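Review form for a predicted model. The reviewer records the input and the model, then writes brief findings.
Reviewer: anonymous (R2)
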Amino acid sequence: MTRSGTTTPGSGPCRSATWPPTSVRCGRRARLAEQWEDGWRQWFASTGIQPCEVVYEDLARDRLAVANGVLEFLRLPQLDADTLPPVRYRKQADSLTERYVHLVRSAMSSRGWSCDPATF
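Model under review:
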């Protein structure tokens, strides 16, 4: 990690001996993430617990709507736009992220794995 909190090649989750990651490795990791998410969904279903799901892209697009959705789920009072706390983070996605998304989608579709572009 750099001082600004970003990951550089060869550090953090990018420790791979080969850089940049190939579409095959990206596809494997994406499939593994899907399996983990399926596991969580099964666990919630088996316990009868209703999770409150928050999609990052929705949060990035409309913080107020997502915050109010969580508050509604918890049966708490809603926020007004003027009471929403200010953003305390910086955007993390950039053109490199978009290239990796393309690599993963390509790898997944070439192997016949489902890949809904609306959610991935």
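Findings: The CA atoms of residues 9 and 15 lie 7 Å apart.
Further findings: The helical segments are 23-47, 56-61, 63-73, 95-110.
Recommendation: see findings above.
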